[in-house]
Amino acid sequence: MKMIELAFLNDTFGTMLAIMPEIMLIIGALSIPGLFYFTKNKNMCATAALIAIILSGVFAGCVILDSTLSCTFMNIFKLDMFAAVMIFLFLIVAFLTVLASFASSELSNHVSEYYSLLLIATTGMLFVASANNLLVIFVGVECTSILSYALVALKKNDPRSSEAAVKYLIIGGISSGLVLYGISMLYGLTGSIDIAKIAHGLENMENLNAPFVIAVISLIAGYGFKISAVPFHMWAPDAYEGAATPVSMFLSTGSKKMGFVVLFKIFIVMFAVEQSVYAVEEMRYIFAFIATITMTIGNIVAILQKNIKRMLAYSSIAQAGYILIALAVMSEYAVTGGIFHMITHVFMKGGAFIVVGALIAAGIKENISDYKGLAKRAPIVAFAMLLFLFSLAGIPPLAGFASKFVLFSSAIVIDGVVRTQWMWLAIIAIINSAISLYYYAKVVKVMYIDSGECNEKIVIKKSHLVAILLCMVFVVAIGVYPEPIIKFCEGASGILFGKC
Amino acid sequence: MFLVFAAILFSIGLYGILTTNSALISLMCVELMLNSANINFITFAAYSTDGIASTTGQIFVIFTIAVAAAEVAVGIALVLNAYKERKTTNTTDLTTMRW
Predict the structure, then answer these.
(1) Chain B residues with a Cβ under 8 Å from any Cβ in chain A
(2) Could you give the 3-state DSSP secondary structure of residue A228?
(3) Dihedral of the alpha carbons of B4, B6, B9, B13, in degrees to the nearest 10
(4) Residue A500 — pLDDT band, cuts 50, 70, 90?
(5) Which residue, B41, B73, B89, B38, is CA-closest to A193?
(6) How far is residue A65 from each of residues A68, A80, A484, measured CA to CA in Å?
(7) Tens digit of pLDDT for each residue in A372-399?
(8) Which CATH number does the domain B2-91 belong to among 3.30.70.260, 1.10.287.3510, 2.60.40.3930, 2.170.150.40?
(9) Mean pLDDT score, B13-17
C-alpha cells in the first residue's frame, strides 16, 4: 500500500528515521520545564507539548503514507506499518490528553512537570510500538508505567489520588516482576531476546517443558495487569477514579493499548506465526477464557457504579475483553478487528472522559446523579456524551458498531468459512454488548429525561470543546465510512503475520 | 542450583506482596522478584557457550537494575505522599474506593 513517494526521507535521516518520532517527543519533554522556568506561562507549555506531538506525528504519518519507508535502527527498532499505525494512535491519545488538560481544573500547579511526564510516558509507548526486542519492550512498558504512577498521584489534596497511586504502584510492581521472570525463562530457553530469534528457537522445541509454561503464564499474567483483564483488573477502577480526568483518559486509552501491542507482538509474532510452537491451541483457549470473564465481569459490575469515572473504567475493562477476542481467534482478520477496535475505542472512551473532565472543570461533580437535566444546561456536551456512550454500546451508525462488527464477525468467519470453534465467543460478546447498553442508556436517561434542580447554562472551555468536537467527528466519520481506517488496520495486521 | 535459588527468591517476593500490610515491605518484595529474574539472567549468561547470547543477558540485567531503581524512587515518593495525606502506610487502611 503506497500512496505518496517519500523516499527522500530515507536519504535524509537514514536509519535514524526509525526513532525520529521518539526523538521529537523527548526533545519536547526536556524543553518544557526550561520553557516554563523562563516564561511562567502554563499555556506555553501545553502548546510546546502539542507541537512536539505534531512533529512526531509527521514522521509516523510519512511511514503510513509510504509503506516502503520501513526501516530498522540497530536491529532493535523497526518502524513498519504496524508500528506506524500504533504510534499514530498513541500520539492521538497524547494530543487529546494535552487538549483536555489545557483548561482542566484538577491538575495542581506542577504544570510543566505534568506535560513533561506525559510526553515521556508517550515515548515509552512509542518504543513499545516499534520494538523488535524483549529488552526494549520491557523498558518501554516500565517507562510508561512508572511515569503513570506519578501522573496518577499528581492530583494533590485529594486522598483518593494518593491511595490510587499506591495501589497502582504495588500491582504494577507485581506485574513487572512477573514479566521479567517470564522473559528470563524465554532467554534461558533460546539464548536470545530478539523476537524473531526466539520464535525461531522455539520452533525446534520438541515437547512442552516447565520453563516455557512458566514463561507463558507469567507473561499472560504480567501483561494481563497492564490491559486490566479480569482477574488482574482491580487496580483499574481505583486508578481511573483517583486520577485527574485527563490522566484517567490517558491510562484507559493509551497505556491499555500498549499492553495489547505487547501481547500482539509476543503471542502472535513470537508464538503463533510459525504455527509450530507447542501449546498454541491451549494459549488460545486461555485467552478465550480470559476474554469471556473480562467482558462479563466488566459489564456486570459497571451496572452497579454510581461514579461516572468508575463506570467508564469498568466499561473499559469490558472493552479490553472484546479486544482479547482477537488474541483467541488469532486470524489476520481478527487482529485487524482488534486494531480497529483499539482505534475507535480511543475516540469514544477518550471523548467520554473529556466530557467528564469538561463538566468537572465547569463545577459539576462526578456522580451520575449530578448529570440530571444536563441536556438543557449544556446541549452540545450532552449530545456528544450520548454519541460516545451509544458508540461504546455499538449502536449502528457510529464507530463502535463498525469495529465491533469486524471483531465479532472474525470469531465466526475464519478464512472465509463459517466455523463453529469460536462462535460461542462471538455470542457471549454480543450478549455482553446488550448488557452494556443498559448502563450507558441509564446515563443518557439521567441527562435527557430527568429534570435537575438548576437550569443555568454551563459554560464549557474552548479547548475542551475542540477536543470533544474532534472526537465526535471521528466517531461519526469512522462509523459512516470505515473503509480507509480498516485498510490501515489490515496493513498493520498483515505485518504482524509476516506479509507485506 | 542458581535457578532453584532464584525460584525460591521469586516465591518469597510474591508471597510477601500477597500477605503483607505495609506498602514499604511490598516495595521490597517487588525488588526481590526483579532480582530473582536478574539471577536467572546471569545464570543463563554464565552457562551460555555463545558469546553474543551471554553478553545479552548481562546487559539485560544492567537495564533491569536501572528500571528497579527508578521504580523504587517513584514508589517511595508515592508512599510518602500517601503518608502525608492519610497518616498511614498500611495498605489495609486504603479503603476509600472499593468495587
Answers:
(1) 10, 13-14, 17, 23, 26-27, 29-30, 33-34, 36-38, 40-41, 43-44, 48, 50, 53, 56-57, 59-60, 63-64, 67, 70-71, 74-75, 77-79, 81-82, 84-86, 91, 94, 96-97, 99
(2) coil
(3) -130
(4) very low
(5) B41
(6) 9, 11, 12
(7) 888 888 888 999 999 999 999 988 889 9
(8) 1.10.287.3510
(9) 93
Write out the H or E segment, with its range, that includes residue A214.
Answer: helix A210-226
Q: Is A407 left (phi over 0), alpha (psi -120 to 50) or beta?
A: alpha
Domain residue spans of chain A: 8-496
Residue from A330, A166, A176 nearest A259 by CA: A176
Interface confidence (ipTM) of the complex: 0.95
- At A77 the three-state DSSP class reads strand
**Terminus-to-terminus CA distance in chain A, angstroms?**
9
The pLDDT of residue B29:
94
Residue B50 with chain A: CB contacts under 8 Å? 191
**Per-residue pLDDT, A93:** 94
Contact yes or no for B37 and A180 at CB 8 A: yes
- Within an 8 Å CB–CB cutoff, is residue A274 touching chain B? no
Q: What was the pLDDT predicted at B48? A: 84
Burial of A383 per CB tally in 10 Å (0-12, 13-18, 19+) = middle
CA dist., res. A299 & res. A311, Å (int): 9
- Ranges A274-288, A318-332, A439-453: which has the least confidence: A274-288
The angle formed by the CA atoms of residues A72, A82 and A10, to the nearest 5 degrees, is: 35
Averaged pLDDT, B67-86: 91
**pLDDT tens digit sequence for A306-357:** 899 999 999 999 999 999 999 988 888 999 999 999 999 999 999 999 999 9
Nearest to B63 among A139, A150, A160 (CB): A139
- And the C-alpha cell for A115? 506535560
Helix A280-303 and helix A423-448, axial crossing angle in degrees, nearest 10: 20
Does the pLDDT at position A276 exceed 60?
A: no
CA distance A208 to A225: 25
Nearest CB among B38, B41, B97 relative to A164 is that of B97
* Residue located via cell numbers 512498558: A141
CA nearest A90: which of A128, A116, A64?
A128
Asked if A169 reaches chain B (Cβ–Cβ under 8 Å), the answer is yes
Over residues A21-31, mean pLDDT? 92
Note if the bond before A33 is cis, omega within 30 degrees: no
What's the whole-number average pLDDT of chain A? Answer: 88
Residue A3: pLDDT over 60: no
At residue A366, what are phi and psi to the nearest 5 degrees?
-90, -5
Average pLDDT over residues A272-298: 82
